[in-house]
Amino acid sequence: MTGWIKFSTEDTRYYKQAKENKEEEEWPPKYVKFLMKFEKETDGDKREEVEVAFVDARRLARIRLVDCPQDEIRQHSPLKENGPDPVVDKDVLTVDFLTKLLRKKRVPVKALLLDQSNISGIGNWVADEVLYQARIHPEQYSNTLSDEQISQLHDAMVSVCTLAVETLADSSQFPETWLMKYRWDKGKKEGNILPSGERIVHLKVGGRTSAIVPSVQRKTAAVAGDVDSAEVSDAEKPAKGRKRKAKEEEVDGEEEEEVKPAKKGGKGKKVKAEVEEEEELKPARGARSRKAKQIGVKAEAEEDEDADVGAEVEEEKPKKKVKSTPKKAAEKAATPGTRKSTRTKK
Questions:
Q1: What number is the average pLDDT over the span 261-290?
Q2: Reported pTM
Q3: Contacting residues for 293 by C-beta, under 8 A, at least 6 apart
Q4: Cα–chain-centroid distance for residue 46?
Q5: What percent of the chain has pLDDT above 90?
Q6: I want to staple 268 with a disulfide (CB 3.0 to 4.6 A). Which of 42, 164, 259, 286 is the partner?
Q7: Is the per-residue pLDDT at 311 higher than 90?
Q8: What residue ranges in the chain does DSSP mark as E strands?
Q9: Mean pLDDT confidence for 42-48
Q10: Which of 143, 140, 107 has the alpha carbon at shortest distance from 223?
Q11: Are residues 54 and 174 in the same domain?
């Protein structure tokens, strides 16, 4: 919600706090964008002079002048484009109407409630309160809600909006069980806890910060997002996808360590491929080595057999030599000093 109308003669603050601020608010108020003055009335009730200020710190609001009777203003643009009001149009905003509205769209249920063309008068904290009391997760798609959930949503919507209007948004009159009483401590360690001990977490739905209680508002069907992407690390366990991702990163780290020595030449991948190829070829090489050993053993056996045969031949040769040349051996043993001649006759 953006913008607020303030009167100089009446307190129209957003929500009345439990501890009243004794300091008087300045006039015109801060961030005023439009100021209208009404003179003092002399006839009738003799209303005193009053000023009306339009305050808009975010500068998102618009002011329109509609020329029509007061009772017919909702039949004129831009109000005629809005949906039924949970307080004023209870005869229109029935369970049947809400069921048809939810089933014909596939959007997060909170985004549907915040869209004024669907239903009027529901702002951010009211939507969170309604969904909390109906025990519905704000990201769940509208067309996945059961009949029982839609009935609970309708009852919570009418109840919350009616009480807020009847108390003129005086939060001190709101029940102590309302989420609205404890949702404002986002980012604080000691806050965001209900009296029952249940934890409040915050996430983005439809572009708006949303307060939910995961232990109460459980996902019963398809949702538009995951609560784990928000500030719920303390409330729920991380998604399985994250574990898988971490595991993949560990594996990648191990592979990088194996390829480290080849960093200088930039051939890490090549080295890794060669290592894998060597591992694949190991069995084949083992078979070849066993075969080679067998061939080597066979060759050694053949060499031993040849050596034995050769040894027998060599042993026989000297015997033949001694038998065939006894005279020559005697001639060789001549007397020292004598001259040998090849011409000596026998």
A1: 49
A2: 0.59
A3: none
A4: 63
A5: 35
A6: 259
A7: no
A8: 4-7, 32-38, 50-55, 201-205, 208-212
A9: 72
A10: 140
A11: no
Do 210 and 141 lie in one domain? The reply is yes
95 is a domain residue: yes
SS3 of 222-243: CECCCHHHCCCCCCCCCCHHHH
* Domain containing residue 110: 83-247
Quick check: 53 and 34 in contact, CB under 8 A?
A: yes
Lowest mean pLDDT among 3-12, 119-128, 229-238, 246-255: 229-238
Residue 305 in domain: no
Question: In a 10 Å sphere around its CB, with 0-12 CB exposed, 13-18 middle and 19+ buried, how is residue 98 labelled?
Answer: buried
Cα→Cα distances 343→337, 338, 339, 346, Å: 18, 14, 11, 9
Q: How far is CA 244 from the centre of its chain?
A: 12
Determine, yes or no, domain membership for 341: no
In DSSP terms, which residues pair with 318 in a beta bridge? none
We report the CATH number of the domain holding residue 99 as: 1.10.8.50
SS3 4: strand
**110 with 56, same domain?**
no
- Examine the pLDDT at 44 and tell me if it is beyond 70: no
